[in-house]
Amino acid sequence: MTNTSSEIQWALAALSVSNLRAVPDHASELVSQVLMGTPLQVLDFKDKFFQVLTPEQYLGWIDAQGLQLLTGEEIQAWKSSNRYLFNRICGQASTVPGIDVDTNTLTDTVTDLVLGDLFEVIGEVDGYLDIRLPDGRKGFVSRHFCLSFEEWCSLSPDADALLAQARQMMGFPYLWGGASSKASDCSGFTKLVFYSQGIILARDASQQARFGGPVDISNIDNLMAGDLLFFGVNPERPGHVGIHLGGGDFIHSSGRVHISSVIPGDPKHDPNRIFRSARRILNSLDTEGITRVKNHPWFGSALKR
Asked: What's the burial of 117, exposed, middle or buried (CB within 10 Å: 0-12/13-18/19+)?
């Protein structure tokens, strides 16, 4: 995976979760993560790392083993393939379909899988999808745990679905730069929850705070379930984000994924977390910074050159 030919402009994240570093060094700051099957634009190569641009236009460096390089023609073929999304918090693909009846366990593991991973399906056996990963590895995963790309793109995002997904991650650990169901930071958590419903958000809290419909926070009653709530010392550049559940409660990743409140006096309220603003996402789909996967050119229609 060291071919740096000028013909190669694209890549797919090849692992269940690939780390995105600030500079090409494993000791460098973790700035984000990308999920298997995420299309990436390749910009540079240095010290066994590729500099890539993510679909939300985020820059970082990925270890060469974390991605599969593709030509423009190959990624177009990927976009036309029979893709499926892993729709559980975590799981695995195994070498053969089904459960070992003697041990009641899956057979040998090919890879772990996390919420949002994309892979190609080449067949189906007894309720198990025969899958091919971006780097060519093959395995089997339960059809029940997956959505076809078409099913995923056909979801009608609503607050109930978003919040149900968010609650499944209660207690999961915080990780600076994390953006997966293994562990996440605050904006990685919100980004993943919306991505599970086919919506691509900007990466960081300060970026997410710029997009969507502004909400008047002078009255808590103005907030709706699914709104993004932003916090921080600097009102112009919030450093924390959560998802409003209703009644001033919000779910967020800070130490772990848990529920807090914006209402002073509530036992869940943290007076040191200053509530600054809110944005309504679900009525702002396909506006700047809020793109449905089906309308993103790297996933669906022709790639922009």
From this structure: buried
Q: Given the structure tokens 């409140």, which residue do they identify?
A: 261
Q: Mean pLDDT throughout 189-207?
A: 98
DSSP 184-218: E-HHHHHHHHHHHTTEEEPSSHHHHTTSSEE--TT
Which CATH number characterizes residue 61's domain? 2.30.30.40
Q: Are residues 238 and 171 in the same domain?
A: yes
Q: In this predicted structure, what is the pLDDT of residue 261?
A: 98
For 60, the domain range is 8-80
Question: Do 173 and 116 belong together in one domain?
Answer: no
Helix (H) or strand (E) holding 229: strand 228-231
CB 77 within 8 A of CB 68: no
Mean predicted confidence (pLDDT) in 204-219: 97
- Whether residue 142 is contained in a domain is answered as yes
How far apart CA 258 and CA 275 sit, in angstroms, is 17
Split at pLDDT 50, 70, 90, the class of 100 is low
Beta bridge partners of 214: 279
Q: What rounded mean pLDDT belongs to the chain?
A: 93
Closest alpha carbon to 93 in 39, 134, 60: 134
Q: Where are the beta strands (DSSP E) in 36-82?
A: 39-46, 49-53, 59-63, 67-71
Q: What is the pLDDT of residues 245-286, one digit of tens each?
A: 999 999 999 999 999 999 999 999 999 999 999 999 999 999
Q: For the beta carbon of residue 87, count every other beta carbon within 10 angstroms.
A: 18
pTM of the model: 0.93
- Return the pLDDT at 257: 98
| Domain endpoint, select from 153, 183, 210 | 153
